[in-house]
Amino acid sequence: MHRGQSTSISIYHNGGTGNLILAIYSNVTDAPGSRLAISLSTPINATADGKNLI
Asked: Does this model's pTM top 0.70?
């Protein structure tokens, strides 16, 4: 088992509408396990953009 600490999560998108939520899950036999962290709902820019969410 690997242990560590995440201090941020980022995404780059090509633009769009609506909101974005990112989450980090544990790994259980190469499938999502329990949710470890979740970002707040963040609006997506209409143009390409990078976001740091957590």
From this structure: no
